[in-house]
Amino acid sequence: MCDFELVTREEWGARPPTDVQTMQDPVPYVIIHHTYQPPACSSSEDCIKAMRWMQDFHQIDRKWNDIGYNFVIGGDGKAYTGRGWSVVGAHSPSYNNQSIGISLIGDWRVELPPPKQIETARKVIDCGVQTGKIRPDYKLFGHQQVRQGTECPGQRLLDEISTWDHFSKTPPFVWVPNEIPT
């Protein structure tokens, strides 16, 4: 049913999450991200290193429960399980408990991700719809549409996803970070 290679948490060497919160399926939103850092990877070995780096950054530096995204797509064309289906992410405030966050490894402000990376992202979304994890009438957004103050997923990737089915120009709400007084 789901036509892509999925790398499990065990296969990429993930540590256990410090906490898991589940969410009700199917979710109404899919949020697309880029990692910016780590940079793009093209081999499975490099993509696994990127996954471990992200988990360290998210859990140790940011003090999150786990890697922030539900799924991460490598330049090797594989989907890497982050938090997975039905688990609240840490990728888009106010949307985390009602969306699937998919991040494409790399910086996609100027360049477009490789075709196989884009295709796998689309296949993960299709799989979510087919398996009842994502609503058939879901809305698709780039991270910068739902969170003020970020370039994520990069302008080039945002331009690409704006051509996909279910892309929505107007999110129901936008999260604005608290301003720090100067």
TrEMBL record:
Residues 4-147 form the Peptidoglycan recognition protein family domain. Residues 15-154 form the N-acetylmuramoyl-L-alanine amidase domain. Disulfide bonds join C41-C47. It comes from the Eukaryota. GO terms for molecular function: N-acetylmuramoyl-L-alanine amidase activity; peptidoglycan binding; zinc ion binding. Keywords: Disulfide bond, Immunity, Innate immunity, Signal. GO terms for biological process: innate immune response; peptidoglycan catabolic process. CDD domains: PGRP (cd06583). It holds the Pfam family Amidase_2. InterPro entries: Amidase/PGRP_sf (IPR036505), Amidase_domain (IPR002502), Peptidoglycan_recognition (IPR017331), PGRP (IPR015510), PGRP_domain_met/bac (IPR006619). Peptidoglycan-recognition protein probably involved in innate immunity by binding to peptidoglycans (PGN) of bacteria and activating the prophenoloxidase (proPO) cascade immune response. Binds to 1,3-beta-D-glucan and PGN. Belongs to the N-acetylmuramoyl-L-alanine amidase 2 family. This is Peptidoglycan-recognition protein. It comes from Photinus pyralis.
